[in-house]
Amino acid sequence: MKRGATPAEIEVVVSRIEQKGYIARPIPGGERVAICVLHNDGPVDASLFLQLPAVKEAITVTRPYKLVSRESQSWDTIIDVGGVRIGNAHLTIMAGPCAIESEIQALTIARMVHKSGAQIFRGGAFKPRTSPYAFQGLGEEGLKILAKVRQETGMPVVTEAIDHEVFDLVEQYADIVQIGARNMQNFSLLRRAGKSEKPVLLKRGMAATVDEWLMAAEYVMEGGNDKVILCERGVRTFAHHSRNTLDLSAVPVVKQESHLPVIVDPSHAAGFRDQVIPLSRAAVAVGCHGLMVEVHHDPETALSDGPQSLYPDQFADLYRQIEPIFRVYYTSTNGCRASDHRGAI
Ligand code: PEP
Ligand code: MN
């Protein structure tokens, strides 16, 4: 639409598109509104709406992930989570244990990571475990502990909804709802996330291509939730020196293909804590919008993912090491000056 198009003019275009049996989705931009045509089989005849008042142009979207694609939104999405921004020139650090184990455990770790620069606290209350005999998480009790952490530290919290059934409960407590790697193509969960008001952190499946990952994000956006954060967490390969292989090449590809923020989880990629700091440095250098890192004050006794959890002083060191890399990244790429953005480290 042209700059200054009125709501009435937008509505006329929307109803013209919908009369044809398609879905029209307005995407408000800084200066102009785009209207994305969804659910069309094959090309749409642009003469349908090109003559209508305030219509500027018709742009053909070539990608199958329409709403996720930069073709329908050229500018970067920035997601505000309780005052913490994710996307564009921000580097947002999420840290915490793999699982919430007790109030004292969560609060101890939260205080430590908050002091060292974490902006968002992570911790699973419902855990997707390979073995049914492994610790499955504290469930709602864990969510209540997360609410206490937020209240005490002011950090927003991210936690996983492992299935459609627990989504209602998780979204009541979480500031960001995580969809785990094993659930990246759980379509009923993606559809439920599409109905949520809460931002969704969508992890890449361990055997998913970038296209499949972006199509999974499209499910959430198509459902009406445009607050999607992508998270690269390593894919399964023949290597066994690490738990997974961190696919950093996905970061620039996703940034080119999509306007959505993309963060990196080096902990699940590595599986061993000694690899986490070097991989974090590399992730920041390659241009990710943030990191999600597992930290535990006593990893030897952790109920899940102890070997990949950083000690709190290692997390402080990680933060210290990535800060100059982030500044160099932005000044050398002219992407954006880090100092222009509040919340950026
Ligand atoms: C997690 O974040 O604790 C987790 C289970 O991650 P993933 O889904 O990437 O394995
Ligand atoms: Mn974990």
Q: What does this protein look like?
A:
The protein has 345 residues and is of the alpha/beta class. Helix content is 35%, strand content 15%. It has eleven helices and twelve strands. It has an eight-stranded parallel beta sheet with strand order 11-10-9-8-7-6-5-12. It has a two-stranded antiparallel ribbon with strand order 1-2. A hairpin with a 4-residue loop joins strand 1 and strand 2. Helix 6 crosses helix 7. It is globular. The two termini are 36 Å apart. 46% of the residues are buried. The chain binds phosphoenolpyruvate and manganese (II) ion (MN). Manganese (II) ion binds next to loops.
Helical/strand content category: alpha/beta
- According to DSSP, the number of beta strands is 12
Counting DSSP H or I runs of 4 or more residues, the number of helices is 11
What does the overall shape look like?
globular
What small molecules accompany the polymer chains?
phosphoenolpyruvate, manganese (II) ion
Please give the order of strands in the largest beta sheet. 11-10-9-8-7-6-5-12
Beta-strand share of residues:
5-15%
End-to-end distance: 36 Å
Main beta sheet, described? 8 strands, parallel
Low-confidence stretches: 337-345
Question: What is the radius of gyration computed over CA atoms, rounded to a whole number of angstroms?
Answer: 21 Å
Helix content: 25-40%
Rounded mean pLDDT is 94
